[in-house]
Specification:
mainly beta; globular
Length: 194
């Protein structure tokens, strides 16, 4: 198979349904929260011929959650899925390629940021003691650059820099190694701390 404009990836399971902290073997029902358990990566089977990318067959491709959430739209059968690639626009669903040695190569001008951890374990209870969940805190819109993209050179942003970003630019992804990152574009950055 030759892919002209998009990546083709193999994803055996679109959702991680196993609850890792469970001693009794619980399984997550993704019908209630299909965002939480999604698998946002797969093995590259074909690379788009139209574009020059660092991707090779066998690499791991990170992609947008729509691929997992709308398999009827992206499935090509036999655990194969089409993942759109557009190096210049938000419509592209391909974010980065991870090589066998673990090195991350951003696609287009996407950037990965690592957010500061915020303790949100404080429980919220009604006056009668009914548990309502955990207290939500407004996260500070600052993070550290995990991987820079093509657009970061022109604004002087490098890996390890602390940057501020615009509201709602903190789209969270889970990397195969377990790291949580935000993906955004250079236009989403507001400042670099010196």
């Amino acid at each position: 198979m030759r892919a002209l404009y998009d990546f083709v990836v193999r994803v055996e399971n679109l959702f991680d349904t196993e609850v890792t902290n469970s001693k009794s073997g619980l399984i997550r029902d993704t019908r209630w929260d299909d965002f939480e358990g999604r698998v946002p990566f797969g093995e590259v089977v074909c690379v788009p011929e139209k574009f020059d990318t660092p991707a090779e067959v066998g690499d791991t491709l990170l992609f947008h959650h729509h691929v997992s959430q709308e398999p009827e739209k992206y499935s090509m059968g036999e655990d194969l899925y089409r993942v759109s690639y557009d190096p210049h626009n938000y419509q592209g669903q391909s974010y980065c390629v991870i090589k066998g040695d673990g090195s991350v190569h951003m696609l287009g001008d996407w950037i990965f940021l690592v957010a500061y951890e915020v303790d949100t374990n404080e429980e919220v209870l009604t006056d009668d003691g009914i548990f309502l969940g955990h207290k939500a805190e407004e996260l500070k819109r600052e993070a550290v650059v995990y991987c820079e993209g093509k657009g970061t050179e022109s604004v002087g942003v490098n890996k390890g820099d602390t940057v501020g970003f615009v509201k709602n630019a903190d789209y969270e992804l889970l990397l195969p190694n377990g790291d949580k990152v935000y993906r955004c574009k250079p236009d989403d950055l507001e400042y670099v701390l010196l």
